[in-house]
Amino acid sequence: MQSLKQIFLYIFIFLSFESFSQITDTVDLNKIFGKFVGGFCIYDINTSKYIQYNKAQCEKRFSPCSTFKITNSLIGLETGVITDTSFVIKYDSLLHPKDSFMLNNSPYKYWYDDLSLKNAFKYSCVWYYQELARRIGFERMKKYIDILNYGNKDISGGIDKFWLCGTIEISINEQVEFLKAFYQHKLKGFSDRSIDAVKSIMLYETTDNYKLYGKTGSGDCTDDKVLGWYVGFVETASGPKIFAMNVLVNDYNDLNNNYRIELTKTILKELKII
Length: 274
What we know:
Blueprint (H helix, E strand, L loop, with lengths): L3 H18 L1 E4 L3 H4 L3 E8 L4 E5 L1 H5 L1 E2 L5 H12 L8 E2 L10 H4 L11 E2 H6 L3 H11 L1 H11 L21 E2 H12 L8 H11 E4 L3 E10 L6 E11 L2 E11 L9 H12 L4
Parallel strand pairs: 1-3
Antiparallel strand pairs: 2-3, 2-11, 4-7, 5-6, 8-9, 9-10, 10-11
Helix pairs in contact: 4-7, 4-10
């Protein structure tokens, strides 16, 4: 007789297949990605339809890098390790000595201060989230990663580095499913308060036509390429859309000038969403 664990696994696989069997359109974004290999997926909450570019890339798992700050923030809030988005962790100059390059460049120059969760997210401060993860601890972190079914769920690479080109990996498609549940307040084990708090710090841009929420991520996680992520959602008059994008570039210089965000906005304009 099959174990309950096996049955639940089959149900999850079936539901995942069902979700992506709803993809009714693919889009050619070669001219936008240009010389770089990348993938993109977007889900329209009002129509329950997906649009996808580069199926193979969308299915392949990569390190989440700093996009994991969304999840880390949620878990920190839900466990009570941090109380709200104004929760401050003090900068420790012994653990994180000042570096001349970082002091002269954004966003790193902001890392040498005591930071709130809101500003740590805004400036994508690595040390803040490493300290947060240490305070959460392995057992609680693993518990919530399993509840979320986040990627391959492997945090064995170290409590303060498993998401930094470490052991945990997630695909574009899985990012979309996670953010879809997040946006619709359907994350098991997480309160509306925690979700709303994280949503508030994800807000990147407000215009007359849309609100853009998201988080970038990057890392030299492959032998000869640098991985860049941008994941989030956009709210427009036609309803909210959940998206995830990643791209493999030659080096960090290719990610300058908000490349990941601007690339995503170009795609959203191409799809006539913004």
